Amino acid sequence: MSDNITSILNDLIETSKDGEKGFRAAAEDTKNAELQSVFLRRAGDCATGASELQQLVTRLGGKPEDSGTVAGAVHRGWVTLKAAVSSRTDLAILEECERGEDVAKASYTKALKETLPEDIRVVVQRQYDGVVKNHDQIPRPPRPLSRYEELSAAI
User: Does the structure show a pLDDT above 90 at 135?
Assistant: First the structure.
């Protein structure tokens, strides 16, 4: 059971590390000081969460992950490539941050469906609540109106 818990926590560490790197990249790319501050704060939150999870893995006798996922690295590479061939607008940055936060929410939701010792569940739940709160605080990119919304607005 300890190996399974270590594996679950290591998956969350990788997710947190991906978030930290993604938010730091977003902070570097934006020209908006307010967004930069939000992104740097989120990167710090991700780093703190990863560190807390690493301590739990060590306490369980496991080897904690110390980097993100291959998928996260590939995604950041794709974002960098896209930025090189097009202007990296704040809208594009926000869309990528939203996608990354959706991945984090899914990872924590999956972990919370597992059987975890109560002290570890409390930590994972608290971090999940933070992910949700922070997800909701990141400015949402404007979405196009649906055809129904366009027609309703015209009436």
Answer: no
